[in-house]
Amino acid sequence: MLSLGELWPPIRLTLELAAITTTLLLIVGTPIAWWLARSKAVWKEAVAAVVALPLVLPPTVLGFYLLIFLGPDGPGGFLASFWGARTLAFTFEGLVIGSVIYSMPFVVQPIRNAFEAFGDRPLEAAATLRASPWDAFFSIALPLARPGIMTGAVLGFAHTVGEFGVVLMIGGNIPGKTKVLSIAIFDYVETLQWTPAHILSAGMLIFSFCVILTMMLLEKRLRRAGI
Amino acid sequence: MKRIGWLVVFMIACAAAVTGPATAIEINVAVAANFTEAAKEIATAFEKKTGNKVLLSFGSSAQFYTQITQDAPFQVFLSADQERPEKAVAEGFAVADSRFTYAVGKLVLWSRDPKVVTGADTLKQGAFSKIAIANPAAAPYGAAAVETMKALNVYDALQPKIVQGNNIAQTFQFIDTGNAELGFVALSQVIERSEGSRWLVAGNLYSPIKQDAVLLKKGAGNEAAKAFMNFLKGPEAAAIEAKFGYGTPESN
Predict the structure, then answer these.
(1) pTM
(2) What is the pLDDT of residues B169-213, one digit of tens each?
(3) If 0-12 CB within 10 Å is exposed, 13-18 middle and 19+ buried, where does residue A69 land?
(4) Nearest CA in chain B to A170
(5) Inter-chain residue contact A90 with B179, CB threshold 8 Å
C-alpha cells in the first residue's frame, strides 16, 4: 500500500541537494564567470569549454569518473580517510560534488553573459571615481549582473533537481541520504508501482514548468525595468 | 528530378547494404545482468551453429519486465527469477508453454581485498563500512542477499551499511572500484577472477535462484527465437552455464 509519508524523504533530500549545490555554485561560479568575462588570457576559452563539458558529456561518463575519483583509489577516498571513511561515493557530500560539476555550466554561462553585457564602461566610470576593483565588483558589477545571477541560480537549482544518471551511478540508492526524487521515480517504475511514480512524475512536471515560466517572466520584467 | 532519382537509388542501395542477406534472422534477447558473460558465449555458439544473429540487452529483471509490458522489441526474456516470466505468461506477454528454468544462480559474498571475506562471520562481525547488494525490489540476487542476511540475523545491524546497485552488474562495479568493501554478487561474475576473497553463500540461507526463460509474444512466430530457446536447453548451453558456476534445476 502506498503511504504518502514515504514520498516525502526523497523530495526533501532533493530540495536540500539542490539548495546546497546552488549556493556553492553561486559562490564558486561567480568568480569563474567574472574571470571568463574579463580576462584577456588566450586560453580562457579552453577553461570555458571545460566548464561547459557537462552540457554534452553523457552523465554516465561523469558518473564513471566520479565513481573512481570519489573512491578509495582516488582523491575522494583520501579526503574521506580524514574522518575515517573510505569513499565519498554513497554519501550526500559525494552527490553535492557531482551536482556542482554537473550543473556548473547552467550557472556560469548566464552570469558570464551578464558580466559581458554591460561592457567596460561602468567599471571605468567607477575607477575614475576612485572605487577600488573590489568595491566596483560588489557595488557595480554584481548589481548590474543580477538578472544573469538569478537566471543562473534558478537554472542550477532546477537542473540539480532533474539530475539522474550521475546520482544513479554514485549514489547507491540509500533512503534519506542518496535516494533523490529521480531515483525514487526510477525505482517505482522498475517495480511497476505506477501510483507513486505518477504522483512524483506529475509533481516534477508541474515543478519544472513553474520554474521555466518563472524564469521567463523574471527575465522579461527585469529587461523592462531596464536593468 | 534526375537528381532525386539518383538519390532514391542511393538510398535503396544503402538500405540493402544495411539489411544484408535475407537468410540471417536477428533476434533480440533481454538478459538479466548476472547472466551477461554466459549469455554472450551461448549467443556466440548459437550464432556459429545457426547463422542467425543474437542481439543481447543486459539489465535488471524488473527493468526488462517493465519494458516488456510496454511493448519492448524483445523476442526472448532470460530473467533472473521465476516470478516475472510467470507474470509475463499470465498477463499475455509471453507464450504459455515456453517457460523453463535455464539456470540456477548462486550467491557469493565477494571482496576485492583478499582479507575481508572469511565466511558468515564476516557478516556477523560487520567490520566494514559499506556492503553492496542489488536492489532487492528489482533484482533477485538482491532479494537473495537480504534473505541471507535475515537468515543470519544480521540484517537489522547491517542495514545502515547497505548500498544498492540498480542491478547485479552495478553492484559488482561498486565493489570492484573499492567504493564498497564487499557485497553480494552472482557466482558467475567472479568465477573467472582469482583475486580477492569470497564466500559461496550456503544454499540453505536463501531460496534457490531459479532463473526462467520465456518466449515472448513478439517471438512467437520467429523460428530463430524458438531455436535459441531450444539451444538454451541443450548440452552446449549447459556446459557454458556450468563453466560460469550455474546449477541446473535437477542438480539442486
Answers:
(1) 0.82
(2) 999 999 999 999 999 999 999 999 889 999 999 999 999 999 999
(3) buried
(4) B174
(5) yes
